[in-house]
TrEMBL record:
Keywords: Metal-binding, NAD, Oxidoreductase. The keyword Plastid does not apply. Pfam families: PdxA. This is 4-hydroxythreonine-4-phosphate dehydrogenase PdxA. The keyword tRNA processing does not apply. The gene is pdxA. One of its GO terms (molecular function) is metal ion binding. Gene3D superfamilies: Isopropylmalate Dehydrogenase. InterPro entries: PdxA_fam. It is an enzyme of class 1 (oxidoreductase). Its EC number is 1.1.1.262. It comes from the Bacteria.
Length: 336
C-alpha cells in the first residue's frame, strides 16, 4: 500500500509553526507512515532549521506528487510570501495573510486527492484579521474553503476525546445552539470520525448543559427538550451513545474509568478545560465533517518563545500520526 501524502501548513511565520514543523520532520519514523509536504515559506523553514541547528535540506517543489522527503530533506510548496527577516513574536498583517494562503493552497490540493490530509500549525487570530481574513480560526476557514455547513471541532488527547456542539461563540449564544438537530448531528460526526481512527463501535457519551443535567427541569430544560431527544434518535439508529450525563462526572468516567471513547460537549470551554488539564502539550485538534481530513496542534503561536528554538513539537508529532492514520483508513482504496 502507498503512503498517504500529508500537507502541513506552516502557520503564522512570526510564531513557532516553522520550528515545530522542522522538529517533527527530523524524525525518521514519520516517513514509515506518510509522505509529508509543507505548505509555507522555504526561507522561513531554513531559518527555523538554523535556529535549532538541524542538518536538514529544505527543497522547494511544484506539486505534492514530486515529493521525496526524508529526515534529511524537507519538501515544501514554497509560497515565498513573507520577508526573510520578518520579526518573531509580533502580530503582523503580512504573516496573517501568509498563514491563510498556506491553508488555501493546501486545501486546493485535497480536491483532486493530490494530498490526503491537511495538518496545521498554529495561527494568530489578530494577525489573520489584520491580514484581511474575517474568520476566527482554522475550523471556520476550512469550512468556508470547502463549502461545509455541518462541521465540528474534536479534541483528541492521550486519555480523553471531546467533540463540540458549539465553539467560537459567546456562552449566552452557546446555550441557544444546543438544539436537538445540532446535538444529533454532532453525535453522528463523533461516530463517523472515530471509525476513521480505528474504533469499530465508538462508545459516545453526551454531556449535559446544565448543573446535574437540569435536575428534571429545575435548573434548565435544554436536556429535556433538546439533548435527550437527540440521544434517543441516535440510539434508535443503533449508535452506541449514552446521556446526557452530568458534566461534573462524565469526564472522569471517560478519561479515568475508560467507559467512553468520546464525550460530546455543549460548548467550547466545557471540552477544552478537561482535555488541556489532562494533557496540555499532547492534544490534537481535528475538524470533523469536512470533505478532507484535517488535524492540528492544539496550541497557539507562542509568540513569547518564537525564534528561540525551545518550542515543544509533541502536539505536531501527534497531529501527524493521527492524520496519517485517518488518511490511510479513508483512502485505503486509492492508496492500493
Amino acid at each position: 500500500m502507498r503512503k498517504p501524502i500529508l500537507g502541513i501548513t506552516m502557520g503564522d511565520p512570526a510564531g513557532i509553526g516553522s520550528e515545530i514543523t522542522v522538529k517533527s520532520l527530523l524524525k525518521p519514523e514519520l516517513y514509515q507512515k506518510c509522505i509529508p509536504v509543507v505548505f509555507g515559506d522555504a526561507q522561513q523553514l531554513r531559518r527555523a532549521a538554523a535556529i535549532i541547528n538541524a542538518p536538514v535540506e529544505v527543497h522547494a517543489i511544484n506539486h505534492p506528487s514530486e515529493a521525496q522527503p526524508s529526515a534529511q530533506r524537507i519538501e515544501v510548496i514554497d509560497l515565498n510570501n513573507v520577508p526573510a527577516d520578518v520579526p518573531f513574536g509580533k502580530v503582523n498583517a503580512v504573516c496573517g495573510k501568509a498563514a491563510y494562503e498556506y491553508i488555501a493552497k493546501a486545501v486546493s490540493y485535497t480536491k483532486d486527492f493530490s494530498i490526503h490530509a491537511v495538518v496545521t500549525a498554529p495561527l494568530n487570530k489578530e494577525a489573520l484579521h489584520q491580514g484581511g481574513c474575517p474568520y476566527p480560526g482554522h475550523t471556520e476557514i476550512l469550512a468556508n474553503l470547502t463549502g461545509t455547513k455541518d462541521f465540528s471541532m474534536m479534541l483528541v488527547g492521550p486519555k480523553l476525546r471531546v467533540i463540540h456542539v458549539s465553539t467560537h461563540i459567546s456562552l449566552r449564544k452557546a446555550c441557544d445552539a444546543c438544539t436537538k438537530e445540532r446535538v444529533y448531528k454532532v453525535i453522528h460526526l463523533a461516530d463517523d470520525t472515530l471509525k476513521l481512527m480505528g474504533f469499530a463501535n465508538p462508545r459516545i457519551a453526551v454531556a449535559g448543559l446544565n448543573p446535574h443535567c437540569g435536575e428534571g427541569g429545575l435548573f434548565g430544560d435544554e436536556e429535556i427538550n433538546e439533548i435527550i431527544p437527540a440521544v434517543q434518535a441516535a440510539q434508535a439508529e443503533g449508535l452506541n451513545v449514552s446521556g446526557p450525563i452530568a458534566p461534573d462526572t462524565v469526564f472522569h468516567r471517560a478519561a479515568n474509568k475508560g467507559e467512553f471513547d468520546i464525550v460530546v460537549v455543549m460548548y467550547h470551554d466545557q471540552g477544552h478545560i478537561p482535555l488541556k488539564v489532562l494533557g496540555f502539550s499532547s492534544g490534537v485538534n481535528v475538524t470533523v465533517g469536512l470533505p478532507c481530513i484535517r488535524t492540528s496542534v492544539d496550541h497557539g503561536t507562542a509568540f513569547e518563545i518564537a525564534g528561540r528554538g525551545i518550542a515543544d513539537c509533541e502536539s505536531m508529532d501527534t497531529a501527524l500520526d493521527l492524520g496519517a492514520i485517518m488518511a490511510t483508513t479513508r483512502f485505503k482504496d486509492k492508496l492500493q
